[in-house]
Amino acid sequence: MAITVQDLIQQSYMAGVKIICGKSRLSTRIEGLTFFNDACSNSISKRNVVLAAAGELNQYTSSGLEQIGKTFSNQKIAALVIKMDKKYDSILEKNLADIFASCSFTVLALPNDVLIAPLIKGLNYDIIYAQGYNMSNPYEDNCLQELVCVERNEQSILSYIKMMGIRVNEYLCILLLKPMGKVDLRDITHICYSFLGNEGFISRRNGTVMLMLRSTAEYTSAVAYFRKFSEKLRTHMKNVYRKDFFLGVGHTFESQIEIRKSYLSAKTALLAALSSTGKDIIFYDDMGIYKILYHLRNRKDLFELKSDTVDRLKTYDLDHHTEYYTTVKAYVQNFYSIRNTASQLFVQYNTIRYRISKIKEEFGWDLFDRDDCIYLTIGFQAENFLQEEKSN
Questions:
Q1: pTM of the model
Q2: Which of 54, 226, 238, 359 is deepest in the core (most CB within 10 A)?
Q3: Among 68, 97, 130, which residue terminates a domain?
């Protein structure tokens, strides 16, 4: 579920709003709220609503506003919402419509009697609710989700950290925990609280429990503590519930303003654990080359890799009634052992050798060559990873 610009203009706190331009972009998703001055001084307002007062715009010339429009378009903001002054009329609205006509966002005008405080509160609530946050969570835990799930400028991050009572000398790390099957996340949250005490924050969202771990120790000791805590929590959960639990532990940054990056690295580690065949806890710092492969910005490359390897095998099997996909997958899983692959697939040793020769003939992949084997191994890893990401 997501809140869009169309949803926004239907809310009671937006009563009397006018669409100045950008009607074709009302389906754009909203992820957060940014104030005009913050948006002009930072490049992190993607998919956010930028809130401005007409007086703030008055200091700019038409060419200045055109440049701001280009900047906001590059930042991919969702909408620019302007609270109009009494002195502004339809002439100003027309001028703004002309200035921002070619921009990639919607421009909305609010009447001068709209109260900004309820608008900000209402919009923040709708964003939190739309993104699946649990509104019954304590205030600090919703602050945690606000802090890590939405891109913010440095000052905003520091404000949230201060509101949560986090000291400036603390190191922070995000841990994501996901159980398999039906489990009451409230019970899991209670157990996590018993482990953390007052030394962290917990929130749950879409079947996953998120923990912010804290430590005032020096950096290497803090990282060691976070690792030990994560392993201890994983062991305890498995013993209590007798089922699989998967954990992704993010990188510990030396600067608190990088906490969102810790969350994103934990998310990458969790998805890697879910797609792995033998690991139920993965530390982002241990992922090696997979940090690059599974990076959130590399999704296009992953899909292309999957298409060039796994999808080619599947398509060929479908067209020619062969079993090359199953064969290569088993070969990879068995660390390129023909004997173990044959045993897993219940076929003769020579059958696998024959298929390997045909695969080289049809696809050009030499399954006795290290580089080709690594290439195909990563292709299957990409398939597993993208499947888990889609389901989560």
A1: 0.52
A2: 226
A3: 130
